[in-house]
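Researcher: Good morning. I'm working through a list of sequences from a screen, and I'd like to move beyond sequence-only analysis. For each chain I'm collecting a predicted structure so we can compare shapes side by side. This is the next one on the list. No need for commentary yet; just the structure.
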Amino acid sequence: MTTTESRMLRLRTLGGSTIEIGGSRVGPDSAVLFGLLLYLAVERGRAIPRGKLRELLWPDVPEDQAGHSLRQLLYRVRRLGLRVDATAGHVTLDPAMVEADFAVFEGGSTRGGDVEGVPISRVGPFLEGYAPRFSEPFLEWVEETRGVVHGHLRRALLAEIAERRRRGDWASVEHLSRDVLAVDPLNEEATLCLAESMALTGSKVNAVSLLDRYLAELNPTETRRLDLPPAILRRRIAEKLPEAPAARLLEGA
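Model: Good morning. C-alpha cells for this chain:
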C-alpha cells in the first residue's frame, strides 16, 4: 500500500472511546484490535518491540501463538487502510498518520481554547469508563496513560481558567473548573474557582454548599483550621455579596 492510499487514524479519548480509520470505526467492543490501535497511536513514532506487544495484548498465551495472533491483527490493521511499519523485531506507527484529541494538551497549552474547533469546556476524562479486561498488563498501561493525560489536561485547563478569570468570564470559569474536577475531584484550585464563579453569577448558596462538601472531604483535623483557603473563601462568600459581577472573591476585600 502506498503512502497516498494510507488513511489517518483519528483517536477520540476525551469524553469518548473511538478510533476512526477512513470510514471505519473501531470501539472497545473490538477488544484486542482497539487495544493495539490505541497503543500504537499513543506510542506513535516509537519503534515498539514485537515482544512488548505480545506481552501487553496476550500475556498468558505461548509466545509462538501470541506472535501468530499479532501478525493476524497487523494484517487486519492494514486491511483498514492504516500504514504500519512492521519489521521482524519492531512495529512503528508514523505520527503523521495519527490525530489524537489529547495531543493538543501535551504542551500544557490549549492553543486558543479549542480542540479541533470544539471548546475545551466540552472535553471529558480520558477514555472514561474504559477498563479492558483481556490483559492485566494492558489495563495497567491504560491507567498509567490516563494519569499522564489527565496531568496534561489539568495543567492546560487551569491555565485557561486563570485567563478566563482575568477577563471576568465567569461562565467559562465555571465550565472549565468542572472539567478539571471531572479528572481530579479534589483539586483545590478548581474547587475555589468553581465556588467563586458560582457566587459571582448568583448561586451563593450553592457555592457555600460546594465548599462545605469540599472541606468535609479533607482530613477531619484540617477542616477545623480557619486559615485554609476554602474556609477563607467560604467566609467571604457567606458574609458578603460581590459589589459587581467582575469582582473577585479569592483575593479578598
